[in-house]
Amino acid sequence: MIEIRIHGRGGxxxxxxxxxxxxxxxxxxxxxxxxxxxxxxxxxxPVVAFVRASDTPFRRRCQVREPAFLIIQDHAxxxxxxxx
Length: 84
Known about the structure:
Blueprint: E1 2-9, H1 14-27, E2 31-37, E3 46-54, E4 69-72
Parallel strand pairs: 1-4
Antiparallel strand pairs: 1-3, 2-3
C-alpha cells in the first residue's frame, strides 16, 4: 500500500490534488481513497489531505501517520511540529 500525506493551506488545491492522485491510481487498476482533514477553516488555514492506493482491497480509514510520500505546498508549514 502506498500512503501519501499532503500539507498546505486552504485554497492551494491540496484536497483536489489528493482526489486526482486517487483517481489516477483507480484508473491504473488500484484500490484507492482520498480524504481531507480540516474543520470550518477559511482560505489560508492549514489543510491536510490523505491518499491511499493498493493492489488489494483495504479497510483502513484512519489518517496517514507514516506516509511513503509527503507533499508540503507551503514551506512555512515545515516548522509545524509533527509534519515531518
